[in-house]
Write a structure and sequence with these properties.
The chain has four helices and eight strands; from the N terminus they run βαβαββαβαβββ.
């Protein structure tokens, strides 16, 4: 039996709740409810399938990720989008910083079997968002202000069991000690 896994950074609950308000707006006003199924997060490594009996290997690889780096802040600043007509996405934009890219590269060293481009974002709308409704939503969100920041101090490994469930966490080690 195969299960899906992925690795993510989760903001604090307050930011998850704030982003949920945007997701609810898209569900009510733009017929887009799929994004409500998942809490706000930044994907460090996208979903991948593995047999459940190989889960221990996934945990071993996850624990080998070098997280010996100081916790760092991510600033969220406004909204962005991927205007793919078949699968448009509306998201909260993180400011790119070197620490986020470095953390992603460290994850990729142990999970390098999928080639993908790293475009950090916190999804607000996708999947069942029609292109027509995406255009309407983007008109409303492209200049909308939303600014906040949060401390990244851990990464999370999740497994899909009908919904995404955290199965392991790894803290960033403070290198200033």
């Amino acid at each position: 039996m195969k299960k899906l896994y992925f690795i993510a950074i989760y903001p604090p609950q307050q930011i998850i709740d704030e982003v949920r308000i945007f997701k609810q707006d898209l569900a009510i006003n733009y017929n887009n409810s799929k994004a409500l199924k998942n809490d706000a997060h930044i994907t460090l490594f996208p979903p991948f399938g593995r047999k459940i009996d190989l889960e221990n290997d996934i945990h071993v690889a996850f624990q080998k990720i070098n997280t010996f780096m100081s916790p760092f802040e991510i600033e969220l600043n406004g909204f962005g989008s991927f205007a793919n007509p078949k699968n448009p996405v509306l998201f909260v934009k993180p400011e790119i910083n070197d620490n986020l890219i470095e953390l992603h590269n460290r994850v990729k060293q142990h999970f390098n079997f999928i080639k993908y481009s790293f475009n950090p974002h916190i999804t607000v709308g996708y999947r069942d968002l029609s292109f027509e409704n995406y255009l309407k939503a983007w008109e409303a969100y492209q200049d909308k202000e939303y600014k906040t920041k949060f401390l990244v101090d851990k990464i999370t490994l999740l497994r899909h069991d009908g919904n995404w469930v955290p199965v392991a966490e790894k803290k960033l080690a403070d290198t200033s000690i």
